[in-house]
Amino acid sequence: MARYVSDQNQVAFIYESGTYASVSGNGFWPGLVQSHDIDESMGVINLRYIGAGDRNVDQFVDGPEDYTGTLSLHPQNWRFLAFALGSCVDGGSPSPYTHVISETNSDNGNAFTSGVANPFMSFTLEDGHQFDATNGLNFVRTINGCVVNSLTISATQGEAATMEVNYIGQALSFGSEAVTSITEDTARPFLWKDFQLQIPSGTVYCEMTDFSWSINNNLEAPHYICGSRVIGAPIPLNRDYELTATFHGTSEHTKTLYDQYFTGGSTFNAMLQGIASTGSREIYVIMSGCKMTDMSAPSPVEGVNTQSITINPATCVVHVNDLTELYNPW
Question: Which domain holds residue 262?
């Protein structure tokens, strides 16, 4: 008997290219993974019918297979943002390298996947519980055809930043073989202190205590009447952005947030920047056409007054400088 203990777990990231759900190339270190949860549904259909003569289920039928998952990590680079927004232009040589990550729409093709069925880049995740591959004692699940449904970047004062990737996959295979070999990235993750929020761009809110920025692609996972239990390529529907943040209240910023942007209704641009190392490890999330849709400013009996806001950007583009040569498969 083998006992699986978490210190031997591994999650590997592998590119796909050519056709949707077709793995290509070597494995990569995804970041400082904190958890990986796979939700597997075999879609069992319970059938009852007249004439069986009892109150029980009469047949169990294999229905649609659905695979979704959540990968939570402390980010060392921003590769998954390219999968979430859909388009990335890599540049710069030698390092630091540049990555301009922008939105893709339903009528945009994909440079790395043939056809128009999947406008987003897809990837494979391998989740391994290790004990002894030579004796067939590993527990390895590989999810192909992963597409980012939603992605959240968040940070709280005094802690490492967190990235949560929610994805939809097409198919899962199981084995007991050795896990894919990947090289650990020892760069420190992005921390709370690396980030600043500017509303509008150029005006820094230094009293921020936490933030969360998210994109939701609202993917539809079709089960076509086409001889297969697994999904076809996920279909991106309406795209939603949301930024939430909490601040210690100040006379400099509270009135502006409330009077100009919340009740006043002004639209504005904003920028969330993270700089782990100037010039070589930077991210700039540039948000345009922003609207403040919610603001709370409670009056407590003690402590520092805080304000919480919710912003919905109309569009976003991300600029990254780092030491990773490619965010694209090639």
Answer: 6-40+59-322
